[in-house]
Amino acid sequence: MSTENPAVEHAARQAAVAEHRRDIDRIDRTIVALLGERIRLGRTLGDIKRELELPARSDAREAEVLERVRQAAAGPLSPRSAERIFVTIIAETVAAQGDGHE
């Protein structure tokens, strides 16, 4: 049991919440920047695929990516959660390849 004043303890916990939220916001900005980079690369790859008359999607490549992501998942991020996230990322990348580069 703590000997501190409950109001002080409450204020400290509130400060901890604010600090964690700032950290999450920073991580979110980094994730969004990396996703933007992935989309840009995907669009360039889509242009090259069109020039070579290759399909936009490759089941084999997507399976490789998902396997690598499952293997890389660690800590509280389960392999299944990582896979679900990347299924969406792959779908958005493929969609961006054909969206006219808006």
Globular, elongated, flat, extended or rod-shaped: what is the shape? Answer: elongated
Distance between the termini: 58 Å
Round the mean pLDDT to the nearest integer and report it: 92
CATH-defined superfamily: Chorismate mutase
Report the CATH architecture.
Up-down Bundle
- Main β sheet profile: none
How much helicity do the residues have?
over 70%
Counted by DSSP, the helix tally is 3
The percent range for strand residues is under 5%
Total count of domains: 1
Main attributes of the structure:
single chain, 102 residues, mainly alpha, Chorismate Mutase Domain, subunit A, 77% helix, 0% strand
Brief write-up:
The chain has 102 residues and is mainly alpha-helical. It has helices at 6-51, 59-72, 79-97.
Task: Give a verbal description of the structure.
- Helix content is 77%, strand content 0%.
- By secondary structure, it is an all-alpha fold.
- Helix 1 packs across helix 3 (79-97).
- The longest helix is centred in the N-terminal third of the chain and has 46 residues, at 6-51.
Question: How is the topology of this model organized?
Answer:
Blueprint: H1 6-51, H2 59-72, H3 79-97
